[in-house]
Amino acid sequence: NPMAKDKDKNRRSSDPASQEMMDYSVEQDYETAWDRYEAQQPQCDFGELGLCCKNCMLGPCRIDPFGDGPQKGVCGATADTIAARNLTRHAAVGASAHSDHGRDIVHTLLMAAQGDAEGYEIKYEEKLEKIADEFGIEREDKDIDEIAREVAEVAMADFGRQEGELRPAQRAPEAVKERWREQGVMPGGVDKDIVRSLHETHIGVNSDAESLIKTAIRASLGDGWGGSMYATDFTDVLFGGPEPIKAEANLGVINPDAVNVIVHGHEPTLSEMIVAAAQDPDIKEKVKEAGAEDIQLAGICCTANEILMRHGIPLAGNFLQQELALSTGAVDGMVVDVQCIFPTLGELAQCFSTRVMSTSPKAKFNGVEHVEFSEEEGLSAAKKILENAIESFKERNPEEARVPEHQDDLVAGYTVESIFDTLGGTYRPLFRPLNKAIMDGRIRGVAGVVGCNNVKQAHDSGHIEMVKELIRHDVLVVQTGCSAVACGKAGLMKPEAAMEHAGDGLREVCEAVGIAPVLHVGSCVDNSRILLACTEMVKEGGLGDDIASLPVAGAAPEWMSEKAITIALYVASSGIYTLCGESFPVMGSKKVREYLTDGMEEDFGGKLAFERDPVEGAHMMIDHIDGKRKELKLDDMMNEPVERAEKVEAAAAHSS
Q1: Does residue 547 contact residue 576 with C-beta atoms inside 8 Å?
Q2: Distance CA 201, CA 203 (A)
Q3: Residue 539 and residue 432 in contact, taking contact as beta carbons nearer than 8 Å
Q4: pLDDT higher for 369 or 4?
Q5: How confident is the model at residue 428 (pLDDT cuts 50, 70, 90)?
Q6: How far is CA 217 from CA 180, 197, 385, in A?
Q7: Phi, then psi, of 231 in degrees rounded to 5
Q8: 3-state secondary structure of 577
Q9: Full strand arrangement of the beta sheet holding 445-449
Q10: Measured CA distances, 424 to 113, 431, 433 (Å)
């Protein structure tokens, strides 16, 4: 076992529950992602630099970064062309993943409106009516199902749109839209822009690096301001708008005396039915007959965030904890749909009575039982999944269970709407208090810290260390995805965290409003909420008329998936400084690298930066925020934070 050679578990994870399970996995000889990472060393340097091309069978070709070997591929493609093509393909795949998720949500809404989706109904009528008005759909003398059908049909048409501009993209501030039009990247049809981006990377099509990058940006914007935004909107319409809710996070939420079912993946159409089925009287009776206390649902990855926000279902963990969760031996069923699912789960599950069940026709795995899920019979499929888990509980050996005790409290469920209410009050919902706190200098700015886990860094440490440094300097942090799970487990998403970790100004605001200094705003498609929150800050006034003028920044400290490339591109091209902990695979091209980290800002108002050290990265973001404050002529006399220990020591000396 490669991990046995290196017992420095702190280098692998900052999460104590994960550290405990890593040691246990070594003892039991269970293989995890960290073992496979060790076995892959050294990884291909040409691939990391973006200097290899496999786009046709003249190759594969690679460019020598030192200049002694080939400087062109067989077709004549240079390092700039190859790196830009590879980046565009990554962005297209990332946009496809989130936008296909969005399409499925829109389709579910359409089926629910037609009465063809078992167990689904419209729960947030007010938001649906607001979208209908935005789309110009007449609502008079129509029932809610008819309105939903028309809205869904209009939205579905946006995916295949051939002319014009995406409807949700019209929500962006006018200055942002004008910039997109000038640069030729205003998103049109979601599918059309993805197909065009792939076409341009075919041999003998586009070889101009900057043009290719802008093609990648257009497809990415179609995700952020299209596919993902539709996913967020209609998930709220179908399952209800999240409100702040308290829950728990980490592997300690697994209950050895219950039937433990973990929902892992990204599409809430399945997980919502699992939650509903767990309340079914027949299922509860079968649980009792099996000798279990109850069904304990928990989530991993973005499905976890979806059911957490709406139901308070606890978080078992994030991306790199999926194998560690199985290694507890106390998981009876793991239900997976799409994205970020290790193909090794079926193999590991064979060590226990655990049943891993795939559900999506898009994603099947070796050694994993497939229970086909469809919206037409969603509740029935969910009940079958839970019945399978109950049977697994009967076969479980209690002596094999090893569940870490680590868990912490968090508050999740913030949206643009609930932030309105939290800041301004139910009868005076607006963003004015946030803008005013920024203008007054109590809040320095706002940072969105999002993204994945990556075995190249100590698990969770990039997220936690960066966020702690940001809030210590009075930067309010909003989070999605696995990054949100990391900080939830670390206790940063509860109001008490402001007392321990936040700077004086941010702490004052948090105490006055009753919020944590770090706000959970959803799954990775819900980065669209962050875009709309920035738009609302612009609308509120006092901080410029452009997202690029706001004292805000974004970061993905431990990113690993192609979706993260897409997200970074649409956030930066919306005007936000965006820092990534791992470099994009383009570092072998000076032209591509310099455009992303410098030239892009002139065209879009935002740019990318790369820095693995999370504290250094936080200060790069703070410097950017301070620069925007200076441009806005805001009071920059912000006090540098004083360590809490120093304050205690000074108070003690004064008392003496």
Answers
A1: yes
A2: 6
A3: no
A4: 369
A5: low
A6: 10, 9, 40
A7: -60, -45
A8: strand
A9: 518-520, 475-479, 445-449, 552-556, 577-580, 608-610
A10: 34, 7, 7
Residue with tokens 């003398």: 141
Q: Report helix, strand or coil for 427.
A: coil
As a whole number, the mean pLDDT across the chain is 93
Quote the CA–CA distance of 524 and 558 in Å, as a whole number.
Answer: 14
Q: 642 falls in which pLDDT band (50, 70, 90)?
A: very low
Contact 300, 317 (CB under 8 A): yes
Rounded to a whole number, what is the distance in angstroms from the first to the last CA of the chain?
56
Structure tokens at 545: 């008329």
Q: Say which residues have a Cβ less than 8 Å from residue 127's Cβ, sequence separation at least 6.
A: 233, 236, 237, 241, 417
Q: 289-340 pLDDT, tens per residue?
A: 999 999 999 999 999 999 999 999 999 999 999 999 999 999 999 999 999 9
10 Å Cβ neighbour count for 125?
A: 12
Which residues lie closer than 8 Å to 165 by C-beta, 6 or more apart? 186, 187, 188
- What is the distance between the alpha carbons of residues 604 and 575, in angstroms, rounded to a whole number? 6
Peptide bond into 42 cis (omega under 30): yes
Distance (Å, whole) CA 103 – CA 106: 5
**pLDDT (tens digit per residue) in 491-544:** 999 999 999 999 999 999 999 989 999 999 999 999 999 999 999 999 999 999
> Exposed/middle/buried for 349, CB within 10 Å: 0-12, 13-18, 19+?
buried
DSSP code string of 257-278: TSEEEEEESS-HHHHHHHHHHT
Burial classification of residue 133, based on how many CB atoms lie within 10 Å of its CB (0-12 exposed, 13-18 middle, 19 or more buried): exposed
99-to-95, 160, 220, 296, 569 alpha-carbon distances in Å: 6, 12, 10, 31, 15
C-beta atoms surrounding 557 within 10 Å = 31
- Record the tokens describing residue 51, joined without a space: 């200097």
Contacts of 336 (CB under 8 A, 6+ apart): 264, 265, 345, 356, 357, 358, 359, 363, 365, 368
- The identity of residue 120, as a single letter, is Y
pLDDT number for residue 639: 53
271 touches 306 (CB < 8 A):
yes
Cα–Cα distance list, 539 to 26, 367, 443, 535, 547 (Å): 54, 52, 19, 6, 10
Q: What is the rounded CA–CA span in Å between residue 50 and residue 38?
A: 22
DSSP helix/strand/coil, 135: coil
Q: How confident is the model at residue 418 (pLDDT cuts 50, 70, 90)?
A: confident
pLDDT in tens, 48-80: 999 999 999 999 999 999 888 999 999 999 999
Task: Please state the φ and ψ torsions of residue 333, each to the nearest 5 degrees.
Answer: -145, 135
Amino acid letter for position 516: A
**DSSP letters for 28-61:** HT---HHHHHHHTPSPPHHHHHT-EE-SSTT--E
Residues 246, 252, 253, 257: what is their CA dihedral angle, to the nearest 10 degrees? Answer: -150
